[in-house]
């Protein structure tokens, strides 16, 4: 290095360039570091600075432009599908993703025991594999059941190969989500592929759906009409996938059951749809199931849906969701082939007939007392009903409306057939009516058999798989024969017990649900169920009586309260009326008084006028007369003013002409007239 180029105060070994001065400014001590490097390593950093700066500039440019570049690639050269997290497609895709290698090998992942979207999960009353009583299908309790874990990739972009194509799975947190959403709901999910044709994404979604459906093959999918979480928008939420209930487990008159199956089979036949459309008849079929609570109406609907492998969509007309608008939206969203179960159509609003609607009169019948299971009081046409609730005509419009899908099986259930409007159950809306009743002797025996008879698969769990393999043919045959013999013996024993039990239960008094409840309490001991049958009968009767007394008492209290409120209201009205009458009377009295005074004054005036005329006639007339006239008129004006002050009303003083002095506007209140009209 040329020593001449060095300045006097600089470090002897390192040339002082403007870059160094600048770097020294940003990184104090850099020049010392550079001279040390130069001295000991013989490297002149001066040469590398432009390179470092260039690299920094390139990094900066890349940082800013890469996002733009990537956005351009995405919008022009890629296809993508966004997944709605409040839709069932979320569950479908995530179930698929959880089974992929890229998800299982992800370094950052989300673990779930339940793959369903948070908003779906919120509305599930049970998990798929569980029964209503909280135990799983193998009878284990929740505590002992181990839940399977599902792994899905965490937030970010994840790459994977699908059928030879390179795809991206993106899961991002949603910044703009409203704060009331649960944390797991604040996410956006999309799948992208290179190329402008999205067929591969559609294929992926179809595959995911088929896999998802396959899982549900042996189950009845139950959807419930509800509102989306965090909004009032109605939607069908999948809430349960239950093992299909065999028709045989619903105890009902054999012929009725067969007729129902035949009717639905015929209706669902493809030729029937053509037949309907050729004749211009709406392709719909409606069934009404009626009877006391716990007699099997819902069970039959579920069994029917399972038998025909259809999804069942349930909405209770006594729930808050069942407003006219919501129900119309729900019906418009139904798939083409499904079972729709409308529960509790006897809610008070719908028992109000259309005839009553027409003449505008109020229902003469008092609102029906609520039945067990009925959540809210009825709605519809009563005066105090909330706006937007369901009315009978609203429901009829929805059932017949163009928006409601053709091809569906509509089932309506009610506890009170007699309360329903004829329009609701006329042919076309209801094509078959099935009655459910309390159990007769045969039914009681059937319920007993259903609980205690040995069913294939009951002790599969106990059987060890290897024992069969060890046995030879002869032994197997022997075992099968033995099993058959035991089965026969068992059946005969259960049959005898069923008859014994049925004899102890009075016919047509108890619902199948009540009997089932008693039998389940002794499910391991049929003898105990029989021995305690009398106790059950007594206890149930007693409970019912207590319930009736309680209901009657509640009714009486409600009636008393209503009467009290009515009396109070009447008292208030009377009081108000009395006050109004008094005020009116007072006003009238005042008026009469004023009129009397007026009349008196008038007669006085006339008298004076008469006198004046007489005196005029008798004498030729003098100034004193005029002055006396003037004074009498003055007293009249004073009278008028006094009256005006008393009644606080502007009073006309007919005979007095107001003084036209310049002080007229600032009247002191005396109002002394200056001239009087005769
Ligand atoms: N006819 C029946 N056959 C078999 N089981 C029945 C029958 N009736 C009732 N049960 C049993 O009783 C319970 C309640 O029955 P379900 O819900 O079907 O009655 P429901 O008539 O729909 O009652 P609600 O009118 O209160 O809705 C179920 O567990 C069901 O298994």
TrEMBL record:
<keyword id="KW-0472">Membrane</keyword>
<dbReference type="Pfam" id="PF25426">
    <property type="entry name" value="AAA_lid_BCS1"/>
</dbReference>
<feature type="compositionally biased region" description="Basic and acidic residues">
    <location>
        <begin position="649"/>
        <end position="658"/>
    </location>
</feature>
<feature type="compositionally biased region" description="Basic and acidic residues">
    <location>
        <begin position="352"/>
        <end position="361"/>
    </location>
</feature>
<keyword id="KW-0547">Nucleotide-binding</keyword>
<dbReference type="InterPro" id="IPR003959">
    <property type="entry name" value="ATPase_AAA_core"/>
</dbReference>
<feature type="compositionally biased region" description="Basic and acidic residues">
    <location>
        <begin position="533"/>
        <end position="597"/>
    </location>
</feature>
<dbReference type="InterPro" id="IPR027417">
    <property type="entry name" value="P-loop_NTPase"/>
</dbReference>
<comment type="similarity">
    <text>Belongs to the AAA ATPase family. BCS1 subfamily.</text>
</comment>
<dbReference type="GO" id="GO:0005524">
    <property type="term" value="F:ATP binding"/>
</dbReference>
<protein>
    <recommendedName>
        <fullName>Mitochondrial chaperone BCS1</fullName>
    </recommendedName>
</protein>
<dbReference type="GO" id="GO:0016887">
    <property type="term" value="F:ATP hydrolysis activity"/>
</dbReference>
<keyword id="KW-0999">Mitochondrion inner membrane</keyword>
<feature type="domain" description="AAA+ ATPase">
    <location>
        <begin position="283"/>
        <end position="440"/>
    </location>
</feature>
<dbReference type="InterPro" id="IPR014851">
    <property type="entry name" value="BCS1_N"/>
</dbReference>
<dbReference type="InterPro" id="IPR003960">
    <property type="entry name" value="ATPase_AAA_CS"/>
</dbReference>
<keyword id="KW-1133">Transmembrane helix</keyword>
<keyword id="KW-0067">ATP-binding</keyword>
<keyword id="KW-0378">Hydrolase</keyword>
<feature type="region of interest" description="Disordered">
    <location>
        <begin position="533"/>
        <end position="678"/>
    </location>
</feature>
<feature type="transmembrane region" description="Helical">
    <location>
        <begin position="20"/>
        <end position="38"/>
    </location>
</feature>
<dbReference type="Pfam" id="PF00004">
    <property type="entry name" value="AAA"/>
</dbReference>
<feature type="compositionally biased region" description="Basic residues">
    <location>
        <begin position="598"/>
        <end position="611"/>
    </location>
</feature>
<dbReference type="Pfam" id="PF08740">
    <property type="entry name" value="BCS1_N"/>
</dbReference>
<feature type="compositionally biased region" description="Low complexity">
    <location>
        <begin position="618"/>
        <end position="630"/>
    </location>
</feature>
<keyword id="KW-0812">Transmembrane</keyword>
<dbReference type="InterPro" id="IPR050747">
    <property type="entry name" value="Mitochondrial_chaperone_BCS1"/>
</dbReference>
<dbReference type="GO" id="GO:0005743">
    <property type="term" value="C:mitochondrial inner membrane"/>
</dbReference>
<keyword id="KW-0496">Mitochondrion</keyword>
<feature type="transmembrane region" description="Helical">
    <location>
        <begin position="45"/>
        <end position="64"/>
    </location>
</feature>
<dbReference type="InterPro" id="IPR003593">
    <property type="entry name" value="AAA+_ATPase"/>
</dbReference>
<feature type="domain" description="BCS1 N-terminal">
    <location>
        <begin position="53"/>
        <end position="250"/>
    </location>
</feature>
<dbReference type="InterPro" id="IPR057495">
    <property type="entry name" value="AAA_lid_BCS1"/>
</dbReference>
<feature type="region of interest" description="Disordered">
    <location>
        <begin position="351"/>
        <end position="387"/>
    </location>
</feature>
């Amino acid at each position: 290095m040329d020593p001449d180029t060095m300045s006097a105060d600089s470090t002897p070994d390192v040339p002082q360039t403007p870059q160094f001065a600048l770097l020294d400014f940003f990184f104090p001590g850099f020049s010392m570091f550079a001279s040390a490097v130069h001295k000991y390593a013989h490297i002149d950093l001066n040469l590398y600075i432009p390179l470092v700066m260039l690299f920094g500039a390139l990094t900066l440019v890349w940082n800013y432009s890469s996002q733009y570049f990537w956005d351009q690639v995405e919008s022009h050269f890629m296809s993508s599908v966004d997944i709605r997290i409040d839709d069932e497609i979320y569950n479908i895709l995530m179930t698929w993703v959880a089974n992929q290698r890229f998800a299982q090998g992800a370094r950052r992942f989300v673990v779930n025991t339940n793959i369903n979207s948070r908003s779906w999960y919120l509305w599930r009353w049970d998990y798929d594999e569980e029964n209503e009583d909280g135990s799983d299908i193998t009878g284990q309790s929740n505590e002992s059941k181990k839940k399977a874990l599902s792994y899905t990739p965490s937030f970010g972009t994840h790459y994977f190969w699908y059928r030879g194509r390179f795809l991206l799975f993106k899961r991002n947190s949603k910044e703009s989500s409203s704060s009331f959403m649960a944390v797991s709901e604040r996410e956006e999910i999309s799948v992208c592929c290179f190329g402008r044709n999205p067929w591969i994404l559609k294929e992926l979604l179809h595959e995911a759906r088929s896999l998802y459906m396959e899982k549900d093959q042996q189950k009845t999918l139950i959807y419930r009409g509800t509102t989306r979480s965090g909004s009032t928008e109605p939607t069908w939420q999948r809430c349960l996938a239950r093992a299909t209930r065999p028709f045989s487990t619903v105890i009902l008159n054999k012929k009725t059951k067969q007729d129902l199956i035949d009717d639905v089979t015929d209706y669902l036949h493809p030729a029937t749809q053509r037949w309907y459309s050729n004749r211009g008849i709406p392709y719909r079929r409606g069934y009404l199931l009626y009877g006391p609570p716990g007699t099997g109406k819902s069970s039959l609907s579920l069994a029917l849906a399972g038998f025909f492998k259809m999804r069942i969509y349930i909405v209770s007309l006594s729930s808050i969701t069942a407003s006219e608008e919501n129900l119309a939206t729900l019906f418009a969203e139904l798939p083409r082939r499904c079972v729709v179960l409308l529960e509790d159509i006897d809610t008070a609003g719908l028992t109000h007939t259309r005839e009553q609607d027409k003449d505008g009169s109020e229902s003469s019948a008092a609102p029906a007392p609520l039945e067990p299971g009925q959540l809210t009081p009825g709605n519809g046409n009563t005066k105090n009903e909330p706006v937007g609730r369901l009315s009978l005509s609203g429901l009829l419009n929805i059932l017949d409306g163009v928006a409601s899908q053709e091809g569906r099986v509509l089932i309506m259930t009610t506890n009170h057939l007699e309360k329903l409007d004829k329009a609701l159950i006329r042919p076309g809306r209801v094509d078959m009516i099935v009655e459910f009743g309390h159990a007769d002797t045969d039914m009681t025996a059937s319920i007993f058999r259903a609980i205690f008879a040995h069913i294939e698969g009951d002790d599969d769990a106990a059987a060890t798989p290897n024992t069969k393999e060890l046995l030879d043919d002869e032994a197997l045959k022997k075992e099968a024969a033995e099993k058959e013999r035991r089965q026969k013996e068992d059946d005969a024993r259960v049959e005898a017990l069923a008859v014994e039990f049925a004899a102890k239960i009075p016919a047509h008094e108890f619902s199948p649900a009540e009997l089932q409840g008693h039998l389940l309490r002794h499910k391991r001991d049929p003898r105990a169920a029989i021995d305690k049958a009398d106790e059950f009968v007594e206890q149930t009767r007693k409970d019912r009586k207590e319930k009736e007394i309680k209901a009657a008492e509640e009714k009486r209290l409600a009636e008393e309260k209503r009467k009290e409120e009515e009396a109070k209201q009447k008292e208030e009205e009377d009081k108000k009326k009395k006050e109004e009458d008094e005020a009116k009377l007072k006003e009238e009295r005042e008026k009469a008084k004023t009129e009397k005074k007026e009349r008196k004054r008038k007669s006085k005036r006339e008298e004076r006028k008469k006198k004046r005329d007489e005196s005029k006639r008798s004498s030729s007339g003098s100034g004193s007369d005029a002055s006396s006239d003037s004074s009498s008129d003055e007293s009249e004006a004073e009278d008028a003013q006094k009256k005006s002050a008393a009644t606080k009303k502007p009073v006309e003083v007919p005979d007095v002409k107001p003084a036209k002095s310049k002080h007229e506007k600032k009247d002191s209140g005396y109002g002394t007239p200056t001239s009087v009209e005769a």
